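Q&A log
Question type: sequence-to-structure
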Amino acid sequence: MDDPLPSAPKPLKPPKEKLWTRDFVLGTLTNFVISANYFMLMVVMTAYAMTVYQAPASLAAFCASVFIIGTLVARFTSALLLERIPLKTLLVVGTLLETTLTALYFLHGALGLLIVVRFAHGFAFGTCSTVVTTLVTSMVPIERKGEGIGYFMLSVTLGAAIGPFTGIFISNNLGYPLLFAAATVAAGISLPLALAIRAPRATSNTTLKRDFVQTEQAVVDDVAADLVPHSVEATRELRVGEAPAVTRKSPGQQSLASKFIEVGVLPISFVACLIFFGYSSLLTFLTPYATELGLAQAASVFFIVYAISMFITRPFTGKAFDRKGATPVMMPAFFAFSGGILVLAFASNDWMILGSALLLGFGVGTIQSCGLAVAVRKTADERLSKANATFYIMLDLGVGIGPVLLGALQPISGYQAMYVGMSVLGMIALALFLAICGNKRIAIGRK
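Response status: OK
Response body:
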């Protein structure tokens, strides 16, 4: 009797593409130092304008918020600049401007000069953060986008923790000149880091990148009608779970809006905007609210605990995103955000304040990093810079508009009702997210 035929060997799984490359680390460090520079100045700028320039509270607050206006302008224009200037060149110029403009804070001229410097500094920061995010996300392997972006966004988390603490400590104990010196050093470190980054060849050459992506897309369009997305390899350019891309318009046929933003990522970006609108209530009102409750000591370490929670959870949520997709990972984050705000609204002791920080760190951090991962995985490579810019424009809008609208609401509603409202807003954001992504296998790396 003949021996049975041997079973076919199981196909070997291809090894994971490397994530922690030299340039990924350099890009992440660059983003950390420019984020630290931003946060250490933002938290003290209103007090600086009131103390040194004797500016009224409304004008002093504008000195802080005009930075966000400059950032928003940069988000809109950086995508156009990237069509004409190589990524690395624009990043180096941006970090050089960051350093120079930070040094200009030493000049004590008219208040108008401070406003101009703040606007220009915001523009430089917006350009740098958009460019470095585009560079790093282009380096991350497609099947590890969630994990890679999760690690990359920790640079913002650390900047948001170290920057405010450094800014408040130095300004209160050592004075504003030493704070500006520390901020200038932080910005200065970003310049050699940017110079050391090696931009991917396809990212630094527009023509090469466009030809490469269009060639891959032509193949995808031919098979899209019959293709069932079961693997990363089969859906590399289909952005798993999404409908096949439509034929792209030539540059001359593009609408005006498409030159500045990536329309396809607006829905997920709007969801993130709502969350960051709620987050702005923490930046603006946490300290006076906690002081009113007699819990100012806990509030002073709120953002440290918040950042620790982000730091611990982001790597795990990024890997889960790659394995399971957006919905299973992000749904708990929306509940954590709403729950954290609700705990804060009814806080009566230090532990409730710190518990709120833990929940909010997980919620905001996961929604931000996974939301960005959804955006970039459903975007063609040649429009990656516009997708990043669009996502951050919406985040900036949420953070920028929040203090204005909530500042008008808070005297009428009080702090507690305002925070309850932000908790409800988190559930509205969840409903919109489910309407957008709930029935789609968006960005699932593997089954």
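Response note: The radius of gyration is 23 Å.
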